[in-house]
Amino acid sequence: MTSQGILRQLPAVVPGEREPFRAVFEEMFPRLRSFFRASGFQAADAEDLSQTALWIVYKSRGQYRGDGSFDAWVYTIARNVARDEWRRRGRRTEEDPVDEATPDESPSAEAQAADRQDLSRTVHALGKLPARMRACLLLHVQQGLSYGEIARRLSLATPTVKVQIWNARRRLRGLLEE
Asked: What's 153's domain CATH number?
């Protein structure tokens, strides 16, 4: 049985009985971990965020109507978790402690600050893209999925995926040049 089929059965499960969700977790956790790693999070953070996203999927399982792709629904939740985490980190009043034992070949503090600023700008610009456009681009760039695979996952036509990715790149370029 697919994770989508299992998820449809979950609302009928007795509260506290999480065993049927195991298949969904086992299928989606590695994919979400890769998604968060590709979004710029460290390995430990990616695992934590993957668990958070799957917890939200579990708690929200009654809201999934089965109209669209289950994967698209899960990745929408994951994108929201990533966006919220980047926002939370951006509001921090104190910087992360600097490791004084960094090797000499590491980038300078200025380069690291510029990289963080670039990453922040990119994440912010990605957040301005329409959801479907952003999903197509991230699945293609982060997970290396082909246009056909993305089309199947998101229940779209392959030419639509190509156009969405082309438009996403064009808009992202424009947003980053501002």
From this structure: 1.10.10.10
Residue 107: the pLDDT is 66
Are 79 and 128 part of one and the same domain?
A: no
pLDDT, tens digit (0-9, with 9 covering 90-100), for 140-167: 888 888 999 999 988 999 999 999 999 9
- Using DSSP, state whether 1 is helix, strand or coil: coil
Please choose, from the candidates 86, 80, 38, 89, the residue with its C-alpha nearest in 3D space to the C-alpha of residue 55.
80
**Alpha-carbon distances, residue 62 vs 16, 55, 127 (angstroms):** 15, 13, 26
Instruction: Quickly tell me which residue has 């779209």 as its tokens.
Output: 156
Give the single-character DSSP code of 62.
G
Q: Is residue 108 part of a domain?
A: no
Q: State the residue for tokens 């993957």.
A: 50
CA dihedral angle for residue 101, residue 106, residue 107, residue 108, rounded to 10 degrees: 30
pTM over 0.90: no
CA distance 32 to 82: 11
Calculate the CA 119 to chain-centre distance: 15
* pLDDT at residue 39 is higher than 60: yes
Q: State how many domains the chain has.
A: 2
